[in-house]
Amino acid sequence: MSDVYFVGCGPGDPELITVKAKKLIQKADVVVYSGSLIPDPILRLCKKGEMHDAARLVREEIFDLLYKNAKKGKLVVRLHDGDPSIYGAIKEQIDNLEWKGVRSIVVPGITAFLASAATLRTQLTLPGVTQTIIVTRAESRTKVPKREKISELAKHKATLIFYLSVHLISNLVKEAVAGGYKKSTPVAVVYKAGWKDQKIVKGTLQTIAKQIQEEKITRTAIVIISDVIDPEKYEYSKLYDKKFSHGYRRARSK
Q: Residue 56 burial (CB < 10 Å; 0-12/13-18/19+)?
């Protein structure tokens, strides 16, 4: 009986994959991967293993593949885009495997909102602007609790990040404004962050819906609503302030 590895392979750039993830993919006997969300250069890292596209399978078929091959002692990798812990479905798979005596190991990956921030060359938190990041999704077929409605989250005026929601951009704008964001609040949409055909669209809550419609972006994009994208002003970090003491450096009086 072998362990099953749930592996995050990053946002799409083959060089944004961890060393651990790369080694596991290369050694794997069986790889069950997340359909079109993982680019070919990463899939080609698997030199000898059987490849199974999870997009074509239902929950029971995926579980059966993982369990039966782990039971045979094979190295099994369940390959996820980005990081497995964000909007994946690993919990149900892990619980079912462990119920049948198979241990799971999770290998984290760089998630798309971090790749998007890197592409935008910005911080998601800025002193004097916001110190909070909210990662969420718009309600569609998957419901969200009432306390997590966009208009409720928007009241915090934090950096608001959306997965799986760009096709609902008009509703995002409406709810964000209803929650208290100004129409002039900057918005960035990063399509396929880390891929060769990556695209960045920047605007405001007043303009972004029309811009996204014109670009025909309907999926595989991160939406970020925040003043950190284009701040009018912000404060410098205290960490490197000469008047600030911490465990490694004393404040300089002059």
A: exposed
Fold assignment, 112-229: 3.30.950
Summarize the confidence of residues 128-137 as an average pLDDT.
97
What average pLDDT does the structure give for the chain? 93
Domain ranges across the chain: 4-107, 112-229
Which pairing describes strands 199-204 and 186-191: parallel, antiparallel, or unpaired?
Answer: antiparallel
Of residues 49, 73, 52, 50, the one with CA closest to residue 63: 52
Task: Give the pairing type, strands 30-33 and 50-53.
Answer: parallel
Q: What interhelical angle do 169-179 and 208-215 show, nearest 10?
A: 170
- Show the tokens assigned to 118: 């890197």
DSSP 65: H
Beta strands in 29-128 (DSSP E): 30-33, 50-53, 76-80, 104-107
| Cβ-contact 102, 73 below 8 angstroms | no
Does residue 226 contact residue 176 with C-beta atoms inside 8 Å? Answer: no
* Token code pair at residue 219: 């999926």
What CATH superfamily classification does 4-107 receive?
Answer: Tetrapyrrole methylase, N-terminal domain (3.40.1010.10)
- Give the 3-state secondary structure of residue 204: strand
pTM of the full predicted structure? Answer: 0.91
d(CA 182, CA 226): 10
Mean pLDDT for the stretch of residues 99-108: 97
The confidence score (pLDDT) of residue 144 equals: 85
Return contacts of 41-44, CB within 8 angstroms, 24+ apart. 41/14, 42/9, 42/10, 42/14, 42/17, 42/79
